Amino acid sequence: MTEYDPQQTAEEMKSLGQSSHTPCPLCGSSGADTLSETAYAEIWSHLQAEWGALISDVVKAAHTLEPWVRLQACSTCHLQYFSPAIPGNSQFYSEVTSSCHHYYTDHKWEFEYVKSFLQREHKVLDVACGKGAFLRSILDLVESATGIDTNPDVLRGKDETKLQIFNQPVEKFSVEHGDEFDLVSAFQVIEHLGSVMPFVVAAYRCVKPGGVLVLSVPNRARRRDLSYGSLDYPPHHMSRWAEEQLSMIAVGLNAELVSITKQPLDKSQTISALRLQELPELLPFQFVGRDLIIKIISRFVLTFPFSLAWRKLRISERLCMHGMSLVAIIRKPMAQQTMVIKSMP
User: Fold this and answer.
1) What's the whole-model pTM score?
2) Residue 292: its pLDDT value, please?
3) Does domain 109-264+323-331 have CATH number 1.10.390.10?
4) Does residue 338 carry a pLDDT above 60?
5) CATH 3.40.50.150 in the chain, residues?
6) Res. 50: pLDDT tops 80
7) Which residues contact 266 (CB under 8 A, 6 or more apart)?
8) Which of 99, 86, 91, 97 is CA-nearest to residue 237?
């Protein structure tokens, strides 16, 4: 069977008689269990209803291999991914971003998390930087801030002495910028890709020995009411991630996994989660005063001194009350100027 090429359109694959099965974007395995099925027609409809995205018939045809797409769990690495699916092309993203004006956000939890350990002498590269929101927020914190993005419409930096944005893929950029940056970030990028490791290897190549690669992804174990809706399906998202798969990336790079951090819920989200889901599940039967009891508990459980017990007992963790994102910090060993990339387990 001809190898799957994530750059091909649906029409090209059909004309070549290729299988519409999509291999795992992380490990390349074809073994998987089907978790659910969704009609592409439903995805296109919800993109318009939820985000105002008017997807053209040309783009729909280019990304629809079959009427239905399956969410699958890889039997090797346990990544959840969609098949048959083709990653969104430049025209798809142009149509989404032109309609959804808040697609590029200036504020993400992971931005603040990463900023907390930056140092003045650091050189930072943000891959798939969009309009450069993260880079602009760290201009006064680091020696230099550089971005790359394949979208030709991204804004150029106004302060050219500290911020530069290049319009090229990381695979090309890394050829001339190996071992150059103290920190290389890719915020919520790899879930969009049809093949993850070539991108990750190229980004990692840019990291100095002793420096770190920062990868963030949507946490598939996040609170159920924190949803991307139709953007969590192809052609926008190709996969759904947990800690296990981020750990496997570090193994594949022969690098040190420093940490994987879950975005916590803020106080208002925690109270909402308790009131709308956790406490009603603990009190499933209706009785006089039930709603009032739930309201009182959810309001006061995070106030002192109850908040001390909440943190000490890690109740949020036990109840799987997590926010939107996972962040992995992967360190390149000091001696690893020439990378040794392992095959995926």
Assistant:
1) 0.80
2) 76
3) no
4) no
5) 109-264+323-331
6) yes
7) 323
8) 86
